[in-house]
Amino acid sequence: MNESESYRVPAVNTLSLRIMSLACLVVFMTQMATTIYLPSLPVVMREFGMTQGATELSISIFVVGAAVPVIFWGAAADRYGRRISLTISLVLFIGTSLLLAWCRDANLLLVLRALQGIGAGGAAIIGRILVKDNWSGAELAKRLSVLSVAFITALGGGQFIGGLISYYLHWQVAFLVLAATGFVALLFSLTVPMAYAEPARISKGMAHAYLTILRRPGFFWPACVGGLGFATTVTLQEVSPFVMQQSFGLEVTSFGLFGLLIGISYLAGALTVNRIVHATGVVTLMRRGSLMVAISALALLVLWWTGLLSHTSGLVIFILLYCLIIFGQAVMFPSSMSAAVNDGKDFGAYAMALCGFLQQGMAGIASSFAVLLEHHGTWTLAILLTGLASFLIARFKVHA
């Protein structure tokens, strides 16, 4: 890697905007691959003759697929360059999305979802690596909170669009929308500069770099906080279509509208980080966000098991607590990622990739385990355990 390939974002607003726009687009695409599909889960279960657990596994297996290869995407981004790695990941995502649009077999659906996750995870982590290449400290937390806006749009808007697609068209049309989004991201990526300087401290190889970063408490514990918080929200997302459509009798379009409230909640959390992170600090925000998630999850468990979450009033309370968990996660996640990556800043793309691997992996494992639980309320215990663990680590293991 020669010196002419070194790159930092110059003080040119248009270039910074292009980098952030690309990063936001791939994060939007990745999250929408889950949310646009959520309203259709009961329909998918009926059409393919799958069990509820197997149907939910199509969400978990995507998250796991996105997580497992992330460390290799990070190494590839440093060895072969951001552009070629991003291009390969986007091509894989586009191809599998097109195949999913015509899939007629339940087993093939799960395989393709895993492969789609691999492509999505690569694109998302390289998008974040581009941001990490050019900003650090509290400014990095602010930029990651901007990425949360893309996450928000997909979280709420994707679920809303998915509800409309499932009701008026066919749920597999959603995968055509995802393929089109990936194609737009691929074209746009060709216009964004992606040169970089390879960090000197990775000369002993990928495994050594990752093990060295993993041993650093300043990296490991914040990454765990974000991962466990993410696991809480993914598990809640996974069970919510069945809870709201079966327990509360919501139609698929109404569930899609509920996604807009989720988006507003995440937006509020992201704007909170963006506004006060410099004055408050990432560690304090991490603790406050994880505390809100833990308290809301505890309230959800208590109210569900006491039978108070029933009828219209119960639905309102359920939605309120759901939105509070999403708000807390929006405050916690960019703060935890910024704290972890800043501690491993000497390792460049490797630190961001390992952080993404840990956080996606925790979410994937937790959500995969959740599908094994009977949905008579046991899932409330699952989200409480992950939410509480996130808070305890943030409170006692992460230091300012």
Descriptive notes:
The chain is mainly α and 400 residues long. It has one domain: MFS general substrate transporter like domains (Growth Hormone, Chain: A), CATH 1.20.1250.20. It contains 15 helices and no strands. Helix 1 packs antiparallel against helix 6 and helix 10 runs antiparallel to helix 15. The longest helix has 33 residues. The two termini are 35 Å apart. 58% of the residues are buried. The N terminus is likely disordered.
Short description:
With 400 residues, this protein is mainly alpha-helical.
CATH topology, what is it called?
A: Growth Hormone, Chain: A
User: Helical percent range?
Assistant: over 70%
Largest sheet: none
What would the average pLDDT be, to the nearest integer? 84
- In angstroms, what is the radius of gyration? 20 Å
Structural class: mainly alpha
- Element order, helices and strands? HHHHHHHHHHHHHHH
